[in-house]
Amino acid sequence: MRVLVTGGAGFIGSQIVDALVAGGHGVRVLDLRASEESKRAGVEFVRADVRDGGALEAALDGVDAVCHQAAMVGLGVDLDDIVDYVSHNDLGTAVLLRALARRSFRGRVVQASSMVVYGEGRYVCEAHGVIRPGPRSVAALEAGDFEPPCPQCGARLQAAAISEDAAPDPRNVYAATKLHQEHLAAAFSRETGVAVTSLRYHNVYGPRMPRDTPYAGVASIFLSALAAGHAPRVFEDGAQRRDFVHVRDVARANVLALENGEARTAAFNVASGGPRTVGEMAHALHAAVGNGAPEPRVTGEYRLGDVRHVFASAAAARRELGFVAAEDFAGGMAELAAAASG
Fold first, then answer.
1. 182: burial class by Cβ within 10 Å (0-12, 13-18, 19+)?
2. CA dist., res. 88 & res. 334, Å (int)
3. What is the DSSP code string of 297-311?
4. Is the pLDDT of residue 153 over 80?
5. In the chain, how many H helices and how many E strands?
6. Positive or negative CA dihedral for 251, 256, 259, 263?
7. Are 335 and 206 in contact (CB under 8 A)?
8. Nearest to 30 by CA among 42, 57, 319, 247
9. What would you report as the CA-atom Rg of the chain, rounded to the nearest whole angstrom?
10. Which helix or strand (DSSP H or E) is residue 22 part of?
């Protein structure tokens, strides 16, 4: 199989390229930027913007499958980013889908989505069953009351794993663009009959993770602090739960989706299936770095765009794609710390 990987020079995209090459597939990368991982023997590199329709249509020559990873990622800084997010993520996806339709493409299409489309995760109220709470109030956050209450009775909720049938509830610009990408893919699929698999990545970490940018993940932010000899600042009380999934597992999920002969247009969680707190991650990285930096410090700070708990049910990806995460959390944190210091 010959695969076009958009964004194949990036953090996740380059790991997908590695996995495809290891599996014996031909790879063509289309990316705005080059990287050492994307420019190597057996990989064709095209420096271009996914929003460039001409370059994109040319890059589709001779490919059997498309793995769409090109995107602007992260929560951003403020609403000055809104046009860039919509342009890179939604317009970029629209240009790709138009090019596929014009070429009457009939191969496999897999695209990157994100757990941020859910907003808050799944919660259960003892009195009212499954609940999706609204955004947390500024007054509650200022008071250090970080757990969202039941919107019907105000009782404390129990967080639970969220599955793909949960109603989406994007709560920031990035989340809205990722959900729109899924909607565009569904419209394309209905018109053409070509299945598009959307993979909802949970909190991805691992080698090649970007550092020191406004769009870096929490692991990168903690590592930057530790490298400078500072205590990582853990927001809220550190008890917010996420599913941290290793980038090699994410790459393997993409390859499984591309190779799936019975694909349907659907979204799947790509997650480890074992939630951890943000505080646990901070302490695991602190232990792995071991440079004498102070222990992680819980600050009580918050960001209005953040949610409290969101972690995944990985059952659908296991059932339909054969995907089960294989990377160990402690080992992955140690590897991430070693890669950052090297």
1. buried
2. 33
3. EE-----TT--S-B-
4. yes
5. 11, 16
6. negative
7. yes
8. 57
9. 20
10. helix 11-22
DSSP 128: T
Could you tell me if 281 and 217 are in contact, meaning their C-beta atoms sit under 8 angstroms apart?
A: no
The rounded distance, in Å, linking the Cα atoms of 186 and 113 is 13
H or E element, residue 150: none
pTM confidence score = 0.93
Q: How far apart are CA 134 and CA 199, in angstroms?
A: 25
The answer to whether residues 304 and 138 touch, using CB atoms and an 8 Å cutoff, is: yes
CA gap 29, 47 in Å, rounded: 8
The two structure tokens encoding residue 225: 């602090």
Residue 53, CB-side half-sphere exposure with 13 Å CA sphere: 10
**How does pLDDT run across 26-81, given as a tens digit for each residue?**
999 999 988 776 667 789 999 999 999 999 999 999 999 999 999 998 766 678 89
DSSP letters of 267-304? EEEE--S--EEHHHHHHHHHHHH-SSPPPPEE-----T
Helix (H) or strand (E) holding 225: helix 218-227
* Strand-strand pairing, 2-6 and 26-31: parallel
Q: Which amino acid is at 169?
A: D
Q: Is the dihedral angle over the CA atoms 174, 178, 181, 187 positive or is it negative?
A: negative
Structure tokens at 150: 């039941």
- Residues near 190 by beta carbon (within 8 Å), at least 6 away in sequence: none
* pLDDT exceeds cutoff 70 at 326: yes
Element (H, E) at 45: strand 43-47
Neighbours of 170 (CB within 10 A): 17
